Amino acid sequence: MEKTVLIYYDARMLGHEPSGWDTNHPEWSDAVKAMIAHQYPEASLESYAYPERPERLTTIVERVHAEPVDGQAWRAPIQATHAQLQRVHTVEHLAYIESLVGGSGWLAQDTTAVSPESVVAARLAAGAGISAIEAINAGEGRHAFCLVRPPGHHASTDHARGFCLYNNIAVAAMHARESLGYRRVMIWDWDMHHGNGTQDIFYDQPDVLVVDSHCAAPFYPGTGRLAETGTGAGLGYHLNVPYPTGSGNAALFDVFEQVVRPAARAFRPELILISAGFDCHYLDQICAMDETGFAALTQRVCALAHELCDDRLVMMLEGGYNAQALSDSAHATIRALAGHTITEVNVLPEDEGRAAVAEAARFHAGTIAALGGQ
Ligand SMILES: [Zn+2]
Fold it and tell me: Stretch 299-312: mean pLDDT, rounded?
């Protein structure tokens, strides 16, 4: 059955455009050059382009305009306010990011840079989830997809990292909690990279359950081990599911069947949020998923949201760096959110990730059972 899908997008998010290599850039310190040389061993510095680029969004937007999905409804996001961001980030971090308005530069010895319009883009990216949750709460729809950049899940309370300035999905979850009174929110981060920032932010909190499936450390950012399950009151409310590179659709279906769904049924969230990166797509050359897998995962998550939380489901774009993969995957995901049936799903004859996911499910079985006793 066809459902409304609220799609949040603002072209000002394209204004975040850190430059590629330019010998005139004084802010490119020797440390930044060394970092890029290390991460792109086959590319010379001169050919380096910032991978988190505007085309990541335009390829999706153009595709959805060219092949409209029945049920799609375009919406404009708000810019997250200082008070909304401060639910997640320190005053010092917010002041630092604000100080970058109008400037260019690298933020750390990592993969994060800004251009003059980046901070406005980041406020919109962080505001999109708030707008989506407000609209769903008001009954304008039940499913939303936030087409945002910069992404958010590597940003922690006090620093930017991995292309992320503000943690968009954490800002959304905190808004649901603090402003709308949701008592239990669940996040599944299916981006290929571990959402270290999201983990840091909610690590000691029991009212936001996080399941994070990702390529196992030491793959970037090097965190997300099985034993990292939370601390203090949040112990048992963080479930990492690391898998090897090369994992495909079947491994991610197992993550859903063996960890996400049982954990959700035990936790009983009132809202489900997805950190929807598409970098597990085989065109990104590290894992082996494809768009049929993302569509089928989405269909499963929709069924779960229907079962547990009156269909309330918000997806937020995280990573994914191949334009074709982003276009195909986001379009298939939005179609699935609108209730279009998935007929064909590609599955590898041997999926290297399945054994690791089964091991993670065994590791977390007791923790998941305990969620039901909350
Ligand atoms: Zn990623």
Answer: 98
